[in-house]
Amino acid sequence: MSELPTTYRPADVEPAVLERWLDSRAFHAVPDADGESYAILIPPPNVTAALHLGHALNNTLQDVLVRHHRMLGRNALWMPGTDHAGIATQTVVDRRLQQEAEPSLTDYKQLEEQGQGGREQFVAKVQAWKDEYEAAITDQLKRMGCSCDYERQRFTMDPVCAAAVREAFFQLFKDGLIYRGKRLVNWDPVTQTALADDEVEMREVDGAFWYMKYPIVERDGTETGEHVTVATTRPETMLGDTAVAVNPGDPERKGLIGKLVRLPIVNRVLPIVGDDYVTMPDAESSDVKAKYASGFLKVTPAHDPNDYEIGFRHERTISETARHVLINVMAPDASISTRHGWPEDDHAQADDFLRDELVGKSREAARKLVVDWFKRHDLLEDTRPYRHSVGHSYRSHVPVEPYLSDQWYVAVTAPINRLPDQGTLERTKVPANSLAGLALRAMAPDQKAGADVGDGVTIPGRDRAAVAEDPDKPLKPLGVGEKVWEGHLRFYPSRYARTFQHWHEGIRDWCISRQLWWGHRIPVYLLAFSEDSDFLERFPKYLDAAGVTDRVEIRAPDTTAEPYYVASLDAESDAALEYLARFAGKPLVDTPMAHSRSLVEARGHDFSHLEGLAKEVAQPIFYLEQDLDVLDTWFSSALWPLSTMGWPRPEDFPDAIPEADKLLETWNPTNVLCTAREIITLWVSRMVMFNLYFSDPDLDPRSTKQRLPFYDVFVHAMIQDGHGQKMSKSLGNGVDPVDIIHSHGADAMRFTLAHMTTHTQDVRLPVDLVCPHTGEIFEPKYITTNGYKVMAPTQESPHAPGSRMVTSYGVSSGQVQASDAMPLARNTSSKFDIGRNFANKLWNAVRFALTRLGEAPPPGGADVDYALADRWILSRLARTVRLANESLSEYEFSRYAQAMYDFVWRDLCDWYIEAVKADLNDRPAARAVLATCVDASLRLLHPAMPFITEKLWEHLNAIVPERGLDQLELPGSEVLVRARWPHVGREWIDEASERSFELIQQIVAAARQVRTEHTVPPRQVVDVSAKAPPAIAQQLLEHTELVGVLANVTPREVGPRVDRPSDAAAAVTGDIELYLHGLIDPELERGRLAKRVEELTSQVDRLQGRLSNENYVSKAPAHLVEQTRNQLAAAQRELEAVQEQLEALA
RNA sequence: GGGCGAUUAGCUCAGUUGGCUAGAGCGCAUCCUUGACGUGGAUGAGGUCACAGGUUCGAGUCCUGUAUCGCCCACCA
């Protein structure tokens, strides 16, 4: 095999192997193929950036599973795709535009306001970014060897997924599970957008507590002369106060509940309400809140989330006096304003100070003015400095303002009226027939706290022994006719089931609207009208006339001024609505409407028949427009298991979905979802709810159509950097897997990642740099920003002073750019050495096997004359196959990797190959066994290390086309990716041979130890004799050659009565005394034997102690006591022998 | 504030129903350029399993508490 280099060079192998897989469409799955279906959906990576090692881990594990099941003969599909990641992507693109001093979001917003299509232009920019990163991500996946069906790749905003989003939204809307409501959002007053919670940075700020006095008044408004003192960090929001709260358990203050106060400046009358949210003051308390509290809490529902809750708990009381619960006192730029939700009848009664001084001022200015006003009027009791954390916008870095706005919601705890009322679930108030109820009922009962495991539902579970024996036929998790969604969702590790359960038990309605441009625009049209009250009655007729038949209309119940919502389902209806909106609708508010007719018509719809209607509709003053917001990214991700399979109508997309027929039936549910724990709530939960809800259009509780999106959820560790910080894009400490592929190879990376995957939460991965000038690896310099340790943006080469480079952190944070003089340094990590070394070891083992087998191929026949080593390695192989099956079926990747490592390196290379090296040419059996072991090793390792095994398979096929032993079939396959997983039955486990071989190993180790100690050159052959009890001596005599080869000794006498030659060094191991002739060195001897005496003495003491403990003898299991006795006897015998040897030396 | 996890050899980590004389890889020390592999081979040193109690014949493993680090969720008048 001269063409195989002596070290494995991944870069020479990987591209060709990948090409071979892709050319042969080895990853493509079709519904009608043979084998039970098996499917995994990729958690679609965000198109915000390229993948990092966290993704590499996630995808490696999925690939291990998919490749394993494909080899088990199952019809395996791994569905790839990417997520549009609304907020994240929009922000990343905007930031990049800003960095490059190009027109950015604020500029496009201006364009949009001027009616110049800014929205479309900006979305095009994001689309370009998406195209770039989607391609990069796909390339990375391929280079990692991920066996995704790339012909089926989806994107959460492509037409197929968009159709699913529309259908899902419409169904929910029709069922009354989508509604519109007000809510406080995190508002960034500078960029004037709402922010997601995770876009809010908490920062410690030096602020103050102000103690402000509100006068108590009688019903008729006269002041009593008394006052209450509220404590606040935000005095300016007092303008929007609609109540004052005290704790009803507060003995000093509860008497004031029901009294009234007059709000200074505004002159609004507020009720004092009792609410146990209020902290009672306690100057001595360690609780900061209690320490600063006054006992009176000002309630500002429109400007504080907690106050919002309190406000609505006391809605009636507040309405009686303050009239309005919600009073918004700010404009979108956070300046004081009476025009954004502050009713006229309320602010009219305010002091002139409000209009003359406050209105139009910023929050900060207003704060000062309000405080001064209170001071001037002797209503400021105290000011105390206070350091607290305040949410800041991560984009504009100003404090976020809780700001009231209209949002769309999915009602997750409302009963689904298509399902019969089944009451509420135990322990919770969640109705069983709600979305959250469905999710809770889907949990495996044995993983669910408070569930009655014994009641009705059978838990399929897994029989580990059965899986180990025969993984080809894994136990099906479902019984015929069972309601599939009752109790089969299973988490690995099981602790994550609790996270899932708690989340659903305390779940709140899901806000699905986002004030963004990048995403699925909410498919709802808002109609507002005024003056012509008949219009509302006529409008449905217009819709009918326009052909918008398949629609749902919702009219806000309370007031005619509120909008009226229409959602349509089919494309034709939707286009008609859009047409009406664009040509007939006149905006009541300042929204842009400059769209071209061609845009609609370009989609192939003809609306000439609507022109007359449009004119008629346009007569009254009304406003019809599609909602400006987009859907939460998770809305489309929640549909991933359905949309990727073409739901609801795959036949609509013949070009986008190959072999669309039966896609859903075949691969929904999928088998396992493989993900990190951070999105159990955000994503897993919602997929479960949606898949159950949408998989059966009738939601018939007796049907078996309701399907889970997946049965198993495997949650793997998060990769942290060397400092224990999460590896993430936003932190800029992510490592590109391609860097590791450069330094170590894809297989090495994959093997190491699998090897790291235990059931723990986090794994740490220290990162080094590769100097682009010299190629050497060094530890980078770090800096600290925002409390995080990150690589300094630029680094100096440690051994080429003056040569500089930039780091990926420097580039991703926009601080530096790579250039010829300062190239980008790739990352690497010595963590991956284990994988690289292992790949190299495998390479060389197979290389060796191929040379020898090439000279004299193994026989094919049945009459094989096995030697001990042959039987031993086959037994080890059988155990390894079992261990691999068992581990992989339980998602224990580390155990699988470790088993492979031990078998290939320790058993096969260190012992078996060394044992048979010399007589491979003479013994056909050894050749057959070696070929078998190599073949099986490649198969077993293929899921973890696909490239190298595929390459070696090619060579193995060329040189040894016929492999396998009698009754151990290894069916041939041209490509390994499609080969069968080895089946080595338990009949190959040979305990007698294992014991015999272990005895040999023990003796060889002892002999080597003595040799090393006496510094015998490795090549020098030493005569050795041994004294051992007859049975053992007999075994040894049968295998003297084996010992001779492995320890490089010449065996002489073996027997129960062998004497120690006077010039021999002695070693005692178990019941065997080993004499290595010609090595006498009393000093060394004495030292070693004395040490052994010490070890044995302490062991004997310990064992004797245990046995002299009556409780142990009586209470411990009998076999353990027996074992202890045997151990003691053995230790005593050995101790005696050692002492004898020691005395003989004296 | 609620929940979860970690703490085992210099480093990174195993240790799944308590039976352990606590393992691996890297690193370290000594030796070996032996025809598969120096990304290798042989041998060795290195740990009171974070701390304090408890349960048990027996605790790295179970329970309680403490400390430190990390993550998730909620929130900070």
Detailed description of the structure:
The protein is an alpha+beta fold and 1146 residues long. 40% of the residues lie in helices and 17% in strands. It is built from 37 helices and 37 strands. The strands form 12 sheets. Strands 7, 8, 9, 10, 11, 12 and 13 form a 7-stranded mixed sheet that branches. The longest helix has 28 residues, at 1118-1145. Mean pLDDT is 84; it is low at 453-461, 476-481, 557-562 and 585-605. The structure holds one RNA strand of 77 nucleotides.
Features:
seven-stranded mixed sheet; 40% helix; four-stranded antiparallel sheet; RNA-binding; alpha+beta; elongated; 1146 residues
Helix content range: 40-55%
Note poorly predicted spans: 453-461, 476-481, 557-562, 585-605
Please give the count of helices.
37
The whole-angstrom Rg is 38 Å
Quick one: biggest sheet?
7 strands, mixed
Basic shape: elongated
Q: Gist?
A:
By secondary structure, the chain is α+β, with helices and mostly antiparallel strands. The protein contains 37 helices and 37 strands.
List the SSEs and their pairings.
Blueprint: H1 10-23, E1 37-41, H2 53-71, E2 75-79, E3 81-82, H3 86-99, H4 105-113, H5 118-143, E4 154-155, H6 159-174, E5 178-188, E6 193-195, E7 200-217, E8 223-232, E9 243-246, E10 260-263, E11 268-274, H7 288-292, E12 297-299, H8 305-313, H9 315-321, H10 344-347, H11 352-358, H12 363-376, E13 380-393, E14 401-410, H13 435-441, H14 464-469, E15 490-492, H15 496-505, E16 510-511, E17 513-514, E18 524-529, H16 535-546, E19 551-555, E20 564-568, H17 571-584, H18 597-601, H19 611-617, E21 622-626, E22 630-631, H20 633-638, H21 640-643, H22 663-667, E23 670-676, H23 680-695, E24 710-716, E25 718-721, H24 737-744, H25 746-756, E26 762-765, E27 768-770, E28 777-778, E29 782-785, E30 788-791, E31 794-796, E32 804-806, H26 808-812, E33 826-828, H27 833-855, H28 868-889, H29 893-916, H30 924-941, H31 946-959, H32 991-1013, E34 1022-1027, H33 1030-1038, H34 1040-1047, E35 1049-1055, E36 1065-1069, E37 1072-1076, H35 1082-1108, H36 1110-1115, H37 1118-1145
Parallel strand pairs: 1-2, 3-4, 9-11, 15-24, 23-24, 25-26, 34-35
Antiparallel strand pairs: 5-6, 5-14, 7-8, 7-10, 7-13, 9-12, 10-11, 14-16, 17-22, 18-20, 18-21, 19-20, 27-28, 27-33, 29-30, 31-32, 34-37, 36-37
Helix pairs in contact: 1-31, 4-5, 13-15, 13-23, 15-23, 24-25, 25-27, 25-29, 27-29, 27-30, 27-31, 28-29, 28-30, 28-32, 29-30, 30-31, 32-34, 35-37
The structure holds one RNA strand of 77 nucleotides.
